[in-house]
Amino acid sequence: MAVQVALDECLSIRDGRLFIEELDADVLARQFGTPITVISEDQLRRNARRYRREFGARWPEGTVAVLASIKANFALATRWILSQEGIGCDVFGGGELYAALQGGVPPDLISVNGSIKSRALLETAVMAGARITLDSAAELDLVREVAGHRGRRATIRFRLRPDFAALTEPTDWYEEPMPIAEAARLYKAGIPTDDVIELGWRALGMPEVDLAGVHAHIGRHTNRTEQWPRIIEAYVGLLARLRDAWGGWAPREINLGGGYPVPRDPFGRGMARLQHRSDHAPSLSEYASVVTTSLRDALGAHDFRADGLRLEIEPGRGMYGDAGIHLATVHNIKLQRTPRLQRWIETDSSDMFLPDVVWEHNRWTAIVTTKADREATTVADVVGLTCQPDRIVPDALLPDVAIGDTIAVLDTGAYQDGLASNFNALPRPGMVLVSGSGAEWIKRSETITDVFARDLVPDRLRRPATTTPR
Ligand SMILES: Cc1ncc(COP(=O)(O)O)c(C=O)c1O
């Protein structure tokens, strides 16, 4: 009788071996090669349904649109899965809008966010009928021009920059404690409040645009739910000022952005300050409850009607994070005895493929896939191929590791593939989709030829040197 322990909804340990859905992770590593990212289709669908269910049930006043942040994973196949689940999309820039449209997202469920939008991007967005979330005064004139030229009416929203002064606790982004309010002030996104009042007046007088609502994304600063009532109060407080300035205008839609953590939250735990924080974030039900209740309360306190209001959320990491694992093979084990004991588990992957170990100080769970039930006896750095220190999981607690073992790094389905670089001319890993007991490529691994595919060497440089260099 096989011994089976569930790690979560898609990962389990069966007779000591890590499984993702019905597949043995070690077998996958050997079949597809490493390094690779493996995505669980079931988990992605479950997450999609959970976001829709948890927020939808708590916002009976109007509709809920879940616009998953495509930057977190822009593989077209994962996007099609979410499109089948009725999930929309937050996009940033022309590439992501392309991915959303190629990935089957209905334009009504696309929010084109981000700063520095080009005319070409606005043309595509206006023609597709996507919502456009403006980030500066200059963008209003540009979108008006494009819409007028194309004979379309553009649906726009303003991205706001409320002062989140009440958020005094430190953000998880930096080792040196910095209040969330300060981090939010430094973050460039959104229209400065001084500009937005005048901008609203202008927009409301333009037949080419329909100012449908507002947007604000502060991001994941801590995984605690306590910050949400203060975020939402700051946001709705600003909205009330705008309503008063704009002759009673009220939004039909409010977008609260993303920032929902991965359940087994790796963020910030690589920093000394947060290393002892529990790796378990509050449940999505708790977030949905706090967010919708705070929104309802804040709207009521500022005399807004919530009836018919479309609530939009943009989960990125929370949607994709725990649907993915990264697999690497151990190529060497190196031990230093003096002056200090140091052990390196050298793999064929890299922090260049898992960059949030640096950016977000992530501390991921690493599992030796065929020894998943063994006691941890070793502390070692799981390291990668590049010339950098390349610590993928510093001070990992592992069982006795051997050359040839496969190491799985959990919760890596969000952001890592999109952030991966070709440093040291490394070909980036591909992505495999697991569905039950089936697995298939959804993004092939790069080859060295791919890495150099954009290079152009002028003919004159290929000629042998005619003079001896000095
Ligand atoms: C506008 C916007 N929405 C949503 C997200 C997703 O954030 P998260 O992955 O923290 O949910 C981001 C990420 O930076 C963003 O910029």
Question: Secondary-structure blueprint of this entry?
Answer:
Layout: E1 4-6, E2 11-14, E3 17-20, E4 23-24, H1 25-32, E5 36-40, H2 41-57, E6 64-69, H3 76-84, E7 88-92, H4 93-102, E8 110-113, H5 119-128, E9 131-134, H6 137-150, E10 154-159, H7 180-186, H8 193-204, E11 209-215, H9 227-245, E12 253-255, H10 284-301, E13 310-313, H11 317-320, E14 324-336, E15 342-347, H12 356-359, E16 366-368, E17 378-383, E18 391-398, E19 406-409, H13 416-419, E20 430-435, E21 438-443, H14 448-451, H15 459-462
Parallel strand pairs: 5-20, 6-7, 6-13, 7-8, 8-9, 9-10, 10-11, 11-12, 12-13, 15-17
Antiparallel strand pairs: 1-2, 2-3, 3-4, 5-14, 14-15, 14-19, 16-19, 17-18, 20-21
Helix pairs in contact: 2-10, 5-6, 9-10
The protein binds pyridoxal-5'-phosphate.
Explain the overall architecture:
The structure is a single chain. The protein is an alpha/beta fold. Helices cover 31% and strands 23% of the residues. Strand 8, helix 5 and strand 9 form a beta-alpha-beta unit. Helix 2 runs parallel beside helix 10. The mean pLDDT is 96. Bound molecules: pyridoxal-5'-phosphate. The site of pyridoxal-5'-phosphate has 16 residues, from helix 11.
Query: How many H/I helices?
Result: 15
Helicity, as a percent range: 25-40%
* Rg estimate, integer Å: 24 Å
The structural domain count equals 2
Largest sheet: 9 strands, mixed
Low-confidence parts lasting 5 or more residues at pLDDT below 50? none
Structural class: alpha/beta
- CATH-assigned homologous superfamily of the largest domain: Alanine racemase
Strand content: 15-25%
Q: Give the number of DSSP strands.
A: 21
Small molecules held by this entry:
pyridoxal-5'-phosphate
Which whole number gives the mean pLDDT? 96
Distance N terminus to C terminus? 75 Å
